[in-house]
Structures are given as structure tokens and as C-alpha cells.
Amino acid sequence: MDAKDVLALGLGIAPPWRLVNQRLDTSRQPHVLEIMLETDRGAEFPCPECGDLCKAHDFKEFSWRHLNFFQHHCLIRARVPRTDCPEHGVMRADVPWARAGSGFTVLFEQAAMTLVREMPVLAAARIIGITDKRLWRIVDHYVDKALMGLDLSGLKAIAFDETASKRGHNYVTVFLDADRKTEPVVFATPGKGKQTVNEFKTFLKAHGGDAGGIKEAVCDMSPAFLAALGKEFPNAAVTVDWFHVVQLFTRAVDEVRKAERKLVQMPSAIRWAVLKSSDGGRLTSSQAAALAELEAGDFLTAVAWRIKEKLRWVRRAGTPHAARWRLSNFLRYAQSQVRGGPLLEAVRKALETVEKHRERILERWTSTHSNARMEAMNGLFQAARARARGYRNTATFIAMIYLIAAPLGDLLNST
Predict the structure, then answer these.
(1) Which of 267, 327, 372, 396 has the fewest CB atoms inside 10 Å of its own CB, making it the most exposed?
(2) pTM of the predicted protein model
(3) CATH architecture assignment, domain 157-241+370-413
(4) What pLDDT score does 413 carry?
């Protein structure tokens, strides 16, 4: 077996294609191995549309970047015919080693996608020696093709939330299949609010799903989200996730602290102390001392903090009936504590929000779903974004979200 046979076997070249020459160009850095392919004279080629064998109309030379040959870059060059099909006319024939329109071989793209799943795109681009912009085109192709085959006909429960795509008020809303144990992301779209729910409904229908078949939705207390759910998914029971209830009061406590510190001297280390759990074991000694001083003093921040901490008692309710009783008790207690003083206005607003969404919050005790996985996914997305020092735009961030956590199957078969 000579060198040409070895190279042809490695490339998977089969008739009518054959390897006719190879040349190592040492005048370029890095050195480039060029492999020239030709077809047998008079060969026929499948029409790209119908697959019928057709005669060649004419030829044009193309090149494709292939996997490195040892430490050298490798290019495949070939004159590719246009087929003359009686039914579909003159069209450029496909080649077996690359997908239509790509400047890379399939094997090169497979290697690139493997790297992208393990490291930032910019780092992967440097390793394989192309620009990150060209690598994003490869990623977009395989992700888009895989999404086209996504089957959502069995989707019954969703959870969704927004995640920051970059600094400032730039968001992507991500929808999960709440019943999937792994790779739960089914849709991601720029922005937040009711329009994203409308876009998800359109996407769902295009992938075999039915809006009437969605029986449960888990989200935050955004009025836009809730209004859109009621309109687009009327059969879905809406569960307001407990994480967002706690987040609502955590922010209220912080607002009270900021307002009060302008009027009185607050204990040191209190900023982070009031945002942590008092029984979670995460307080430093200085934070624990600050909380003790806060409790002993006549601070309105202490009132707000005690209300936030009482939420834990509500959460530990073992049954829906107990949860309803505890939430009612919590609301009566909290409302009695915030009757006086404008500094507690943030807490009063939080209580009004909980009262308004009481029934949706109580769905937590009858539902088997929560947004805990959504919050965990947010952590993965933001870690990937930070590791890559951001993405070029929102579209590339969404592609990475799909790549990390969507059920796309074997991406490398999506040619």
C-alpha cells in the first residue's frame, strides 16, 4: 500500500473520486499539506435534489480545511461538477467528505464541535487555527439542524425564567421541559416578558407540541409572564416557584437596610448577614455578631429580616393544608409588623405581591416541579459566559445554551 492509498483510505475516498496528488507547501507557516482529488473521466454524479445519476455539466475547483496532518495544516482540493438533471436542472454536486456550502471537511467539523463542548469557543478556535467567527458558523449549523428535529409532542410541564446575556438589561428567556432529568432546555429566545411566551408557543407548535397539552408551568411572579401564560396556555396550572418568593423578600430586606443606614449607624458586616440564612451555617463570626446586635437593637431592618426568616417555617409545611394555614399565619404576622413607618414600604409591597399570588404559590405543595433546575442551569450558562468572556451577540449565547443543555442528540449527524 503506497502513500496515496493510505491517504485515500484515511479520507474515506471512494469512486468516482480518487486521490491524484499530494504536496507539502513549506513556504507557508504553518506548513500546508495539499491533497488533490479528481473524478474518473465520464463519471456520473447524483443530483443533489433527487439522487438520480446525471452527467457533469461543468467543473469548478474548491478547497476544504481538513484535520491536521501531524503538525501541518491540511487542505483538500477538488474540481467539483455541476450535475445536469433533466428534472432539476444544473446544480452543484455534493461531495462525500464535506457538507454543502462548508469550507471544512465533516471530520474537521466533528473535531471542532467536540472541542466546543469542552472549552470556550475562542480557545477552541485558537487550537484548530481558525477564527472564532468561522467556528460559530459551524456551531450554528449543527445546533440549528438538531433543533429542527426536536420532538415536543410529549411536552406536558414547563419551567422558564430569564438569564442575563450580557451586562445591562439584556436577557434571554429559557424554557425547560420540567419532566426531563437531563438536557431539559427546549427553547431559548432573546428578551423577557409576554412576547417570549408567544414565541415559545409558536416554536412548540412547529415541533409537534400542543399548547392545550401543557398542564403545568413554573415561573416567577412577573405580571407579563403570568398574563401570557393565561392567554396562550389556558390549561396550565401555574406554580410560582418558592425561590422567587424568597428572592422577593431578600430584596425587600436589602432595600430597608439601605434606607435605614442613611438615618442610623448600622452594625458592621450586616450587609451580607441579612441576606444569608440564619440557620444555614454560612455566617461568618462577624456576620453572626452583626445579626445579634441587629436583633438586640431597635432596627427596622431587624423587623424585615425576621419576616424573611419566617418564610422558612412556611416552606417546611408537610401538606397542602398545612402550607395554606402557615402562609395565612405568616401574612397576618408580617402585616402586623409593618404597619408603621415608610422604611418598611418594600416589605409591604412584597406582602401584597404574595397575597396576590397566594394560590399560585400554594401550588408548590401539589406540584412535583420547581424552578430549582432552572436556577442551576442559569449558573451553568453564566459560568460559560464568564469563562468565554462573553459571546459576540445574543444569538451565539443562545447557541451555547442549546449546546450545554438541550436534548439535541448526536449533533454530528445533523449534517
Answers:
(1) 372
(2) 0.81
(3) 2-Layer Sandwich (3.30)
(4) 61
